[in-house]
Amino acid sequence: MYLNCHSFHSLRYGTIPLDDLIDKAVHCGITAMALTDINTVTGIYDFISECKNVNIKPLVGIDFRCGNDFRYIGLAQNTKGLAEMNRFLTHHNFKEIALPKIAPEFEFVTIIYDFKNAPAILKSNEYIGIRPEEVTKLFGYKGDFKKLMILQPVTFRTKQEYQLHKILRAIDNNILLSKLQISDIATSTEVMVSEERLLAVYKEYPKLIANTKAIIDSCDFQFNFDTPKNKKYYTNSKESDIALLTTLAHQGMQWRYGNNNEAALARVYKELKVIDELQFSGYFLITWDIIRYSNSRGFLHIGRGSGANSIIAYCLGITDICPIELDLYFERFLNENRKSPPDFDIDWSWQERDIILEYIFNRYGYENVAFCGTNVEFKYRSIFREVGKVFGLPKDELDHLAKNPMRLQQTNSVVKMVQEYGMLLEKYPNQRSMHSCGIIISEEPITNYTPLEMPPKGFPIVLFDMHVAESIGFEKFDILSQRGIGHIDETVKLVAKNRGIQINIRDTRISKNELKANSFLSQGKTIGCFYIESPAMRGLLRRLKCDNYKTLVAASSIIRPGVAKSGMMKEYIFRHNHPTQFEYFHKVFEEQLGETYGIMVYQEDVIKIALHYGGLPAADGDILRRAMSGKGRSLAALQKVKDHFFASCLKQGHPDALSQEIYRQIESFAGYSFCKAHSASYAVESYQSLYLKVYYPIEFMVAVINNQGGFYRTEVYVHEARMAGAIVNNPCVNKSEFKTNLYGTTIYLGFMLLQGLPSKLAEAIVKERELNGQYNSLDDFCNRVTIGIESLKLLIFIGAFRETGKTKNQLLILASLLFNSSAIENQMLLLQESVKEYKLPTLERSRFEDAFDEIDLLDFPTSHSVFDLLQTPYRGDVMSNQLSLHHKKQVRMLGYLISRKQVPTVRGTMYFGTWIDYEGNYFDTTHFPDNLLQFPFQGGGCYLLLGTVEVDYHFPTLTILKMAKMPFVNDPRYSDAIDHQLRTQQNIKEDISGTDREPYPRAHEINLPRKIIITNTTKLI
Question: Which residues have a Cβ under 8 Å from the Cβ of 752 and sit 6 or more positions away?
Answer without folding.
Answer: 738, 739, 740, 759, 762
